Amino acid sequence: MTPLRSELPSILAPAGPVAAASTDLAWAMLAGSVGVISVIGALIVFALMKRRTVRPVPWLIGGGIVFPVALLSALMAYTLARNANPPLPADTLVVSVTAHRWWWEVSYRDPRDGAPIVSANEIRIPTGRTVRLAVTASDVIHSVWIPQLAGKVDAIPGRINHLVFAADRSGTFRGQCAEYCGDAHARMALHVISMAPTEFDSWLAGQADDAAAPATDRARAGREAFLRSGCRQCHTIRGVSAVASRGPDLTHVAGRPWIGAGVLRNEPGAMHAWIANVQALKPGAQMPSFDLDEDTLGSLAEYLEQLR
Q: What's the Cα-to-Cα distance from 57 to each of 52, 61, 65, 255, rounded to whole Å?
C-alpha cells in the first residue's frame, strides 16, 4: 500500500469568497510592489541621465513621503474593504476542531437534539453555507490552514480561535497543519469536503447513528479483536466500546476518504496496511504498529472497513 501523495492546493485557485479576497489582495500588493519598483527604477535612470544638478528636496518629499503614503493608504483602504467582517448569517454552521498530535478531532451538533457528532480528519460542509470553525488544541500549538477556502488560524491549548469561510462549489479541498508540532507534523492533513446541502444533511444524520453491526462472521471476529487487542483504550466505536478520545472516533471510519490524517487513501487493503505498519507509514504517530497474526489482523481490518 503506497502512502497518499495528494497534490498541494494552489492559493491562486480559491474556492470560496474568503480565499478569493485573500488572493485579490495578494495580486493588488504584487501590483503595488511592481509599481514602486518601476518608479524607483525610472527615477534612478532619470538621475543618471541628467547632466545638471537636480534639487533633492522636492524629489525626497515627493518620492520619499507623498508617493509611499498615497500608495500605502490606497492598499490599506482596499484591504479593509475586501476583508470586512459582516455579521454571520443565522444559519452559519459551527464546527469544533481540536488538533491532536497528529490528527484532527471534528465535532458537529445534531440539529435534532444538540448532541455532539464526532468525526476525524475531515470537515464536511454544505456548499454555499457559511461555516465557522471553533479551533483549539489538546497538547501543543498547531495551526489550521485550508488555502483554497481560508487563511490560517492557530490551534492553542486552552483557547478557542475562530475561522469563518464558505465554499462556493462542491469538491474536496486539502488543508494542513501549518505550525510545526512534532515528528508527524508534515503528515497531518485536514480535508474539507463540500457537498450539496441535502447531501450534507443526509450525511450528518447518518453520522449520528451508532456503528453498524458486523455483516459477516469474519467481521464479528474483528469486532471481538477490537475489544480484545486494546484498540478501545484509545478509540471509540459508538455502540461497541466506551468513550475514549486519545485516538480518532472510528464509528464511521470506513466512510472517510483517507486514513491517518491524509496518509493513505481509504481503499481495499489500506486498513490492513495501516494497522500493521503505522510507524512505517507515519513515523512518530502515537499508535503502535500491531504485531497480530494474519487471521486476527484480517478480521479486524474487515470489521473496520464495514463501519460506514
A: 15, 6, 11, 70
The separation between the first and the last C-alpha atoms of the chain, rounded to the nearest angstrom, is 21
Give the mean pLDDT of the chain.
89
Closest CA to 28 of 73, 72, 69, 75: 75
Closest CA to 93 of 118, 121, 128: 128
Beta bridge partners of 96: 107, 134
- Nearest partner of 304 among 264, 279, 285, judged by Cα: 264
Q: In this predicted structure, which of 8-12, 91-95, 205-209 has the lowest mean pLDDT? A: 8-12
pLDDT tens digits for range 64-77: 788 778 888 887 88
Pairwise CA distance, residues 43 & 304, whole Å: 69
Q: Is the pTM of this model over 0.90?
A: no
* Domains detected in the chain: 9-208 (2.60.40.420), 217-305 (2.60.40.420)
